[in-house]
Amino acid sequence: MPADVSPLVVVNHLGPEVGDALGRFGGRLRVVAGSREAEAPWDWTALGAERADILLTGPSRNWKQAPTEQPVAWASGCPGGPLWVQIASAGVDGFPSWLLRGRIVTCGRGDAAAPIAEYVLTALLLRAKRLDALRPTGPDDWTRDAVATRDVTPLDSLQGQVLGVAGYGAIGRAVAARARAFGLRVLAWRRGAWTGDGLAEPVGSLAELAAQVDHLVLALPLTPETAGCVDAEVLAGARPGLHLVNVARGALIDHAALLSALDRGQVGFATLDVTSPEPLPAGHPFYTHPAVRLTPHISWSGPAVRANFARKLVENIESFLDGRPLRDVVDATRGY
Questions:
Q1: Is the CB of residue 32 less than 8 Å from the CB of residue 47?
Q2: CATH number of the domain encompassing residue 84
Q3: Where do the D-isomer specific 2-hydroxyacid dehydrogenase NAD-binding domain residues begin and end (predicted)?
Q4: Which of 84, 176, 272, 284 could form a disulfide with 104 if both were Cys (CB 3.0 to 4.6 A apart)?
Q5: Dihedral sign (CA 202, 224, 219, 293)
């Protein structure tokens, strides 16, 4: 790098997990350590960064509590606002709208698609095979379960069932590919027009999707248009016994409407990795409802997720330094 070119200032909220990725750029970057858990993660003065070109950050409680108005230091023409923000998560609903506007924003879209798809298929198989419920503790239990499974309630099969995917991006496609391997027919609804891709058949609306499928997977971004989209009307028209799987955002679902649908059997089961809020308050019915499997927002977890993000980060930094387009740019007007 020429001596008269200053290094780009990177404010790093992600800590050592991206240290190797940043280190390979040597003197082309000046990294300033920050924290998304700080009371004001957007306050450059507290970091000693008189200017930030790049911000690396991720979801946090404090970002959700950020001011609704853009801080003065982030305003157009001021030196404090970064030119590019790289977010570690796929969703950007937990960040203030001003962060997404007036600059390049990229996200972790697709980094966790494989583990999330595996979580979904696990949920479908558990629903069909009931392996978590069939745990005999002695010979009498063993005989009872064997007879019941043979004569009364045989194990179900995914073969020939219909899976619906609401939101057909990287996660939806990963789910569809794995579902097809188990013999499921896959229908998908997405906001933009499309004609199918060989894995999934297009459906015109969320209500139409819910009415036709045995399992409905939510893989939608949370935006003003999708908030509460799984409401009482959609659930009332769902195929009886529907298995609802949410690996996206809890606020996509009207929780009261889902509870009512579960209680009357319209929805047969719900696998919820996400809720609104997180965690749910003590005593919430989802904790103990017999037709709900609740997990603590862990479907994204997998051994390669951080490596996927680090690889994308390196590619994006190289592109940014060279003036080339970046991967997985967020459309602020659409919210994803």
A1: yes
A2: 3.40.50.720
A3: 143-299
A4: 84
A5: negative
191 and 243 part of one domain: yes
The helix, strand and coil proportions of the chain, stated in percent and rounded to the nearest 5, come to 35, 15, 50
| Residue-wise DSSP of 265-296 | TSEEEEEES--SSSSPPTT-GGGT-TTEEE--
- Of 2, 58, 7, 4, which Cα lies nearest the Cα of 320? 7
Catalytic member of 278, 311, 324, 334: 278
- What confidence tier does 167 reach under pLDDT thresholds 50, 70, 90? very high
53 and 86 share one domain: yes
Based on the fold, state whether residues 98 and 213 are members of the same structural domain.
no
Q: Catalytic annotation on 284?
A: no
Measured CA to CA, the distance from residue 235 to residue 261 in angstroms comes to 7
Q: What is the pLDDT of residues 34-74, one digit of tens each?
A: 999 999 998 887 888 767 899 999 999 999 999 999 888 78
Catalytic option among 297, 306, 315, 318: 297
Query: How many C-beta neighbours within 10 Å does residue 155 have?
Result: 11
* Rounded (10°) angle between helices 113-129 and 170-181: 40
Please give the DSSP secondary-structure letter assigned to residue 80.
S
Alpha carbon distance 116, 114 (integer Å):
5
Q: What is the domain range of residue 150? A: 113-294
* Same domain for 145 and 207: yes
Does the pLDDT value for residue 3 go beyond 50?
no
289 has catalytic annotation? no
Distances from the Cα of 138 to the Cα of 66, 142, 145, 149, angstroms: 55, 6, 11, 16
Asked if pLDDT for residue 80 goes beyond 60, the answer is no
List the catalytic residue out of 215, 239, 243, 249: 249
Report the C-alpha gap between 120 and 126 in whole angstroms. 10
SS3 170: helix
Does the global pTM surpass 0.90? yes
Whether 297 is catalytic: yes
